[in-house]
Design goal:
48 residues; T_Tr_GTP-bd_dom; GTP binding; GTPase activity; P-loop_NTPase; 25% helix
């Protein structure tokens, strides 16, 4: 029998092309502490 994890959440992000979905997910991951301090994460601009 598997144990159910209570600290995992699923979300869906629905938006048109170029409306910041990737930027939003990148920021959520940064704030969650998923990236190590020495890990480089490319910043994405808004394309303007």
């Amino acid at each position: 029998m598997t144990n159910k994890r209570e600290d995992v959440r699923n979300i869906a992000i629905i938006a048109h092309v170029d409306h910041g979905k990737t930027t939003l997910v990148d920021e959520l991951l940064k704030q969650s502490g998923i990236f190590r301090e020495n890990e480089h994460v490319d910043e994405r601009g808004n394309g303007l």
